[in-house]
Amino acid sequence: MWEDEISSHPGCSEFVDQKKIPKLHEQLNTRGDLLGKSTKELKKLAREGFWARSHILRAQAYQHIIQGISCRLMTPDAQVYKDVAGKLFGNQSETCDPLPEFLTGSIMPDYCLNVEGVTVVKKILVCISNLYPDITYCPLLPAVTSLMLHYSRDDAQCFENTCRLLYCNAPHTSYIDHSFLTHEASCMTFGDLANKHCPAAHRLIASSSDNIFEVYSEWLVWLFNDLPFDYVIRIFDVYLLEGQKVLYRIALALLRQYQISVDSKGLEEIDVKESLQAFMCDIHNHMTAEKLLEKAFGIRLFSRKEIWLLQMANKKALMEKGVTMVQHRQLFHLTVNAQDFASTIVSTQEMRIVWSWIPERFSLFSPVLLFSTSEDGYSLQRFYSCCEGYEPTVLLLKTSLGEVCGAFLSSDWNERKKNGGASSFFGTGECFVFTVCPEMERYEWVFIKKPEQAKAMPCSPHQRSPSPFSSEGRTKASKNHLTVPKLDIIKNRLSPFLAVRHFKLPSKTASMFMCGTHEGIIIGGGGGQALFIDANLHHGRSEHCETFDNPPLCQEDFQVQLLEIWGFQKS
Questions:
Q1: C-beta contacts of 340-348 below 8 A and 24+ residues apart
Q2: pLDDT, position 238
Q3: pTM of the prediction?
Q4: d(Cα 52, Cα 30) in Å, to the nearest integer?
Q5: How far is CA 386 from the centre of its chain?
Q6: Containing H/E element for 465?
Q7: C-alpha to C-alpha distances, 127 to 67, 97, 165, 180, 413, nearest whole angstrom
Q8: What whole-number distance in Å separates Cα of residue 123 and Cα of residue 76?
Q9: 264 CB contacts (<8 Å, ≥6 apart)?
Q10: Which residues of the chain have pLDDT under 70?
Q11: Counting Cβ atoms within 10 Å, is residue 230 exposed (0-12), middle (13-18) or buried (19+)?
Q12: Tens digit of pLDDT for each residue in 98-120?
């Protein structure tokens, strides 16, 4: 074993600069027996930093873990590398070959490698490119290869292990994106997760940047380029066992801590990209690597399958937009353009923040005005006719007192016709309500913000909510009832990110999203309506509701001054 060779850091490869790599206090009894450990046990050890104390143990752990990764049958091994490298480079100690085209825009860190190690990484990348022309964009590959080389016996073993990560075929598990389309979908998925799990940081970024996606597209750079090596290698420990999902966790934990840091300094104007990079480089002054992992695993994400499905939805949206090859992201990640956007209710900057709350796969597209009371009049039937055929939509409302609020509505208003004319709720868990003036705030589905409220409790399929269309509907039971959508209907229409099977709802009144009849429209139900607007589009009411757990969005009883519905321009 290479750890027995004379070295000041046993366990590290010959390609490591001994002066750069952190010195660990190796102990004779730290090797342990990893062979009999289950994956669950190994995950626990990695999270606790069991092999962070020993280069030897880390090298053993990496080899054991990677050999256990399920991958494609014809994944090349060390001997394939020796054959290909021999043909490409002969006995050259250096390579003059240009780096593969798929590394455009890649993270290219050296970490603790020596000059020979940097050359070896380039050779491995050229060999992978030669063997796999299907890889068209792979910015994370150099960082993964470099980290792997620190603890590989030789370049051939490093190549084999890297290829196993590239071609992992475990269900709903991925390590490295192979194409520009998949990489961009991953960045969008991180944006969706940040929107859900880091609302304060998300709002800070949205208000400080014209292109929020451009900020989130750097999320892998934060982890593998900006953080110090002792943090990167701890991240790599858990990444090998848990795949890309754990990178989302860690980046979210960093984003939360970044927002706390910015708030503590009281800065009003910041360059978000620069300050994020500075924060990552200076992470030692904010939290230890142990604390970072602790906070990361304290975030309650959805399952690996659900995140994979969200990524597939984002990938589909990019394909619909015509994005398949590398292109400048501003060509397709459209922000709300000040020159093209004109609303009588909100400013361009306010709409940009609202747009930043919307799932990434929809916010790819520009807003298009579907209905406006100032142009189309105060007619509910006109409202329906203008909105039908569009999903999702954004409703904006301004009261006679100047208050501004609204809702993101995931389903087509045409859904109201599908229950035989009976008034019933429809929509999905991606719906949310918000306020713009006097303050900007978003209120999501209660089981997204507070998943602990979802208990394993049986729900009556006949549970209903009183209709707000009767005078006594808000105070006692009425003969006019609104049915709640059945769970299987919601599941079929729900985004994969919010499958209802994740939520064993104690009350169906907490899943009332949208309702429309000839008497008016309702958004949010259970104990009250987040928004109710009458058939004349003149009068409305806003109350606390169980679906969004929101306070009244404006004065409880209000008069509508202006109302707009915005759709998404997909062509």
A1: 340/366, 341/367, 342/369, 343/369, 343/396, 343/564, 343/566, 344/372, 344/374, 344/398, 344/562, 344/564, 345/396, 345/397, 345/398, 345/404, 345/562, 345/564, 346/396, 346/404, 346/436
A2: 97
A3: 0.73
A4: 10
A5: 32
A6: strand 464-466
A7: 21, 10, 15, 20, 54
A8: 15
A9: none
A10: 1-9, 25-33, 93-97, 267-268, 324-339, 419-422, 448-511, 570-571
A11: middle
A12: 788 888 778 789 999 999 999 99
Say if residues 200 and 257 touch (Cβ distance below 8 Å). no
Question: What's the confidence (pLDDT) of residue 482?
Answer: 44
Q: How far is CA 374 from CA 343, 352, 369, 408, 560, in A?
A: 10, 22, 12, 21, 11
398 beta partners: 404, 562
Written as six digits, the tokens of 444 are 């999501």
Q: Which pair of structure tokens corresponds to residue 331?
A: 């060509």
Q: List Cα–Cα distances, 66 to 48, 159, 175, in angstroms.
A: 19, 12, 12
Cα–Cα distance measured from residue 62 to residue 58, given in angstroms and rounded to the nearest whole number: 6
Spatial distance between the Cα atoms of 350 and 441, rounded to a whole number of angstroms = 11
pLDDT given for residue 11 in this prediction: 76
Beta bridge partners, 531, equal 523
Q: How far is residue 244's CA from residue 5's CA, in Å, rounded to a whole number? A: 34
Q: Which two tokens stand for residue 440?
A: 């900007």
Q: Which residues contact 483 (CB under 8 A, 6 or more apart)?
A: 419, 422, 423, 424, 425, 464
Which tokens sit at 445? 């589905």
User: What pLDDT shows up at residue 83?
Assistant: 92
Q: How far apart are CA 533 and CA 520, in angstroms?
A: 6
**Contact of 521 with 541, CB cutoff 8 Å:** no
Reported in sequence order, the residue ranges of 277-363 that DSSP labels E, i.e. its strands, are none
Residue 87 CA to residue 340 CA, distance in Å, equals: 56
- What are the beta bridge partners of residue 532? 522, 541
d(CA 10, CA 3): 5
CATH of domain 180-329: 1.10.472.80
pLDDT at 544: 94
Q: Which residues are within 8 A (CB) of 290 and not within 5 positions of it... i.e. 6 or more apart?
A: 49, 234
Crossing angle of helices 155-166 and 115-131, rounded to 10°: 50
Task: Tell which residue, 520, 491, 498, 367, has the closest CA to residue 426.
Answer: 491
Beta pairing, strands 514-517 & 520-523 = antiparallel
Q: Where in the chain is the domain with CATH 1.10.472.80?
A: 180-329
